[in-house]
Amino acid sequence: MTEINYNRKWVSIITHVAVWVIVLALPYLLNSHHDDSWVQQTGNTERGFLYLDFFTNFLWIAAFYLNAYLLTPRLFYRKKYVTYASLLVLLFSVILLIHGFLFKSVFGTQHFSWLRGNIIHLSTFVLTIAISTVFRLVKDKMAADKKTQQKQEENLKTELSFLRSQINPHFIFNILNNLVALERMRSPELGPTILKLSSLMQYMLYETDEDKVPLNMEVEYLQNYIDLQRQRFGGKLPINVELKIPSDGSYEIEPMLLIPFIENAFKHGVGMIDQPALVIGLRLEGSRLYFSVQNRYNPASVEVKDKISGIGLGNVRRRLKLLYGEQQVLHISRDEGWFVVTLEINLH
Question: Pairing state of beta strands 288-296 and 328-335?
Fold first, then answer.
């Protein structure tokens, strides 16, 4: 980061130098068409004025940067307008005195019209100060906008990390409950289940640190989770799963984005419900992802939510808004005893 800032600083310096070189060379370029006969006709007067303007331009450069980096931020920004104006008058007077000295040195004469010098150079001074002030205002505005953007990006990263960290403990809590149930049933599936959980944990610990993961890897994670739940409920819960995606890893998605919908279905789609059932579907059409989760629920029951209920869905709704904005459509509805979640995401 320090090296990048160092390089940017040098690029800025080179740009400033190049601009001023062009400005200083412009009068000579405009007069380059004159031949020696023109110089003999005009004598050394015109050439003397070119030299005088050349040296005077360095005074305007000094005034430009003095105003941009000292007077404007320390006085104009702080609304010390009287002091600011007074120092500008003093600066103009100093420039005029130096110009008068240069005039006498170049032309070898003591005659210099201070009134004419004021009239000629006042407009140039005002223009220089105006451009310098605008330069500083634009520079500070760009820096402020960049800082605001960086702050928003950091806040977004922090918020997404916080939301993701809320999801992970919820998921682990549910799987540990599954293992307890298998242990109590003395199920021979306990060993394979622990291995599958280990695979899930490896995914959660190492893959979810990335901003995005291959879609097929995320779907494999979902499938493993569903298999673990199948082991837990057996034939008590019919589960219809259809996950159709390309296996080439050509699409990516944020990790742990879809699992809360499935967790919610398993959590609230079983229990005091007649004929519980789950239907989970995922497919790709072009770059658009279609995902749906349906589970039966009891409309007559009054659901009492504990401290964990609803964390997943609330967070995933927030994550979708932060990550995809208008490129996603999420619908959650209840229809004839079914709790239905449909999600569309444009992966591009």
Answer: unpaired
Average pLDDT, the chain: 77
Q: Which residues of 141-151 are buried (b: 16+ CB within 10 A; e: fewer)?
A: eeeeeeeeeee
Phi, psi for residue 267 in degrees, rounded to 5? -70, -45
- The predicted model scores a pTM of 0.54
The more confidently predicted of residues 56 and 290 is: 290
Whether residue 345 contacts residue 245, with contact meaning beta carbons closer than 8 Å, is answered with: no
Domains of the chain: 2-148 (no CATH), 155-346 (3.30.565.10)
pLDDT (mean) for 230-258: 82
**If DSSP codes are grouped into helix, strand and coil, which group holds residue 102?**
helix
Percentage of the chain lying above the pLDDT 90 cut: 17
Minimum mean pLDDT among 29-38, 108-117, 247-256, 339-348: which range? 29-38
Which among 27-31, 49-53, 98-102 has the top mean pLDDT? 98-102
Burial class of residue 348 (count of CB atoms within 10 Å of its CB; 0-12, 13-18, 19+): exposed
φ, ψ of residue 194 in degrees (nearest 5): -65, -40
Partners of residue 345 on adjacent β-strands: 289, 328
Within 8 A by CB and 6+ apart from 292, the residues are 279, 280, 281, 282, 340, 341, 342, 343
Q: Are 275 and 298 in contact (CB under 8 A)?
A: no
Give the angle subtended at the CA of 54 by the CAs of 12 and 56, to the nearest 5°: 90
CA distances from 178 to 129, 221, 223, 255 (A): 74, 16, 16, 22
Percent of the chain with pLDDT over 70: 73
Question: What is the phi/psi pair of residue 295, to 5°?
Answer: -145, 145
Q: Which residues contact 61 (CB under 8 A, 6 or more apart)?
A: 20
